[in-house]
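[SOLVED] Need 3D model of a two-part complex

Original post:
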Amino acid sequence: MSLAAISNPFHSPVVSDPWEGPEIDVISVHQSAFARCCEAVAAVRARPHSASVLVYGESGSGKTHLLARLRARVAGEGDGSGSFQKAIFVSAPLRASARMIWRHLRDCLVGDLLRRSADGGAQLERLLLGLLSKYRLISGDGPLWLAQRRQEARRDDLPCRELEELFDRMDSAGRLSYNLRVALGHLLLGRHRGLAGAWLRGESLPEEALRKLEIMPEPDGDDELEEQARQLVTALTCLATAELPIIFCFDQIEALQLDPQDPSGLIAFGQMISALYAETRRVLMISCVQISFLGALNQSVRGADLDRIREFAEVSLNPLTWDEAQQLIKARMDAQPELKRLRAGRPDSLWPLREAEVKTAFTGAGCIARRLIAHCAALFEAQRGGEAVAIPTTPSVEVFLKAALEERRRKALESGEPSQTNQIITHGLPSLLLLTGNRWRQRNRDVPAGVDLLFESAEGDVAIGLCNNRPGPGLVKKLDQLRKFAEAAPATKLILLRDSRLPIGHTAAKTRELRERLLKKGARWVEPSAEALATLDALRRLLSDAKSGELDNRGDTVELKTVQDWLARHLAAELKDVLNEMAPGDVMPPPEELYEEIAELLGRQHVVSVADASALLGRKVEEVEACAQTHSDRVGALGDPPAVLFRLVTDS
Amino acid sequence: MSNEQASHPEAVACALRALRESAQPLTVAKLAKAIPKSALKSKKDLPELLEQMVRAGQIRSHKARSSVYWLPGLEEQASERILEALSEIPLTQTDLKSKLRSLLIGWPQPRRDEMLARLIKEKRVYRVPPLTGKATLLSARDEATPQDYVRLALQLAVDRLKTRGLTVEQVLTVAREVFQPAPASPAISPSSHDAADLERLVLERMLRLNPSAVNGAPVQLSQLRQALRSEISDKDVFDRTIMRLAEHGRVAAHRHDYAGGLSQEDLAALVSDGQGNYFIAVTLRD
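Solution:
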């Protein structure tokens, strides 16, 4: 086989998610940093306390690769020796706002606890089975016991007595609430998995679903939700043991800083680490940060919190030395059997690459892994083509960013759920406003009850209330808080944002009445579309990746400023629409009630004839037809005039 | 959630917020101030509401002083304070209890004792041999370090000499005189340094600025430059020394990712290799 037929070994991407890869891992690279992380794991196994490690590195130096190596090692995928004990791994890229940081961590923790591993079991099952075994409540083969218990659970609907016994024995501090115990029981026995998982993540469930789960409703005000998330995270981490400690990996810390002048995100992160450190045991926290961010971290995070973040160790991922670079290059090439065969016996150990050409990527300080791999990819490509060394051109930044934004938007459309809307808006909207050159400055102190985002602008203060709760006491309370705020601060422009996928039905009379009162007081009602939210999500993810140095255009890290400038020039039309609706100006007309009623009906029935819809809603057929035609972008209709209405699903 | 609580959701939220913002347990009177009048039908409802919250596990109190409340998480913070006190210096149980009175203001004394007992049971606080006398000491470490005993000895000296009218500062001054190290070598002017001296100076100062540097922690170059200002006043000399150390593999120099966006002033604080690369921090190589 000739070189031309072999795929480029340097084209496989660098690790961008600790849950993927690492396909090729040269253990001697970043060995001492990895060893410190392993020592920290050993420390939390050895003593009933938590530990914290801070990892620095240039963008592309391999921070995520290091986490992936650790993840693989504690999952038992490591060096095959089986000598490394297992642990629970949680990856938490911090794309979150300060006010929702615990809710974000809850989502990450639960998401990873429920993540299925290669053997089909979830980390949560492993954790609970380990505890049941430790407390001698089960003996023998845990998975076999679980399979039998699940069969029994399918026959009768009884709770798992061993689990109840376990919680009673291990939870003397009373951290595991009744609801949490019930949800964990369902998940272990495989009952109502979807609903129990959604509750555990913090999603707002309808009463019917809660009844099915036998879970008590909880208050869903903003403060309560954040406190509940904090309590749930600390309660779940109580399940960590010496045999199965929990490792939290905090990545993209830079993304917490929405505005360089606003330290609130970093302060909240420091406080979160301190709280976890104080309230948990057998937990290791690894925080990764770009070395360029060192100053911001030192300036913004409180000294005591910073000491906690780096309590066990602070380590750096150094640029590669020439020796390390050679090992990495050889490992990549030898991972392909055909290429390894071709290379065998060659006097030049880097063949088909030439040492002198590889070395051009090096400065006096060395070379980071990402840059080296991209450089070698170009050199290999040139060699394979049989041409003289001519490094292929890197895509222009414009082309790269367009593709990067589109990719993130596609993923957001595929996986977007209304439960993510608050996180997307609180994290994405301040960034969007900064991009547009809008001089709104976010205020994070003394934010009134009910208000989620508060901005100061030359035209006066602007308050945004996110009204994405399900219709019920929580939403009524929220609107009532906003009503009180509107009365107390009439000069402040109030904007109420609700995901357009969450119509308010005609049965929510109190909600509608309060909204009406707010609109009469001058508040705006804005319903961003699923497309607008997906674009905003893509935008915040792109900015987060840029802030943490993860935008890699063939070895060149695309700078944040470049991304911001490009986004400002290419702001998507739907985002402009949302911004135009929010900008202070004329009062918006109130939302059309009939449209909301139709949307709510379609949310339940998905397809309905116009005749049935008009009968169910107590409206004339012509009214329903006209409304469907007016809102053809949000309501699916067949026939002209429409005869059948259907729920429009976003096309990704 | 009980009906009682459900009928006062705002009061519950206000109480939780006040407790969250407080570093110590709060009395009913203080909680009453944190709850707006409109949130409760009558202030008389508050104690019952708080009891409901205790039963629901949202907050805690102690039978010894049932008019004081705190969040469950505050107990761990209090435990941390106990551990912090003991990590400074080992103490006898009596001394610790006396210290906790000022450290853990607002906590019922039996609860303070319970927290300490729990820390001992959980092996987060250890009993270690005393320097003198028979009473064992409590420590945050499983064995007292030499530094702990030196501190205890100094504490003993301070206590004994207090009766002779010596202040703490005077005792410490005497101790410094007794243990004074050999005088530091005088600063050498930059001109008298050769390259090896400068490199040694930089490595030495890195460790002094951040002792964790020995384990791979980074040192910001702006701080290092500032710390060596009297010895290496010339920017180019400093920059060349750093780059030389990096080339020799003694340190790893970390590039600033976004140097293009920095002001001239900020760039001047970084180290330049003269080829368009700017470095923000250094770490010691193994």
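Edit: The CA atoms of residues 52 and 309 of chain A lie 6 Å apart.
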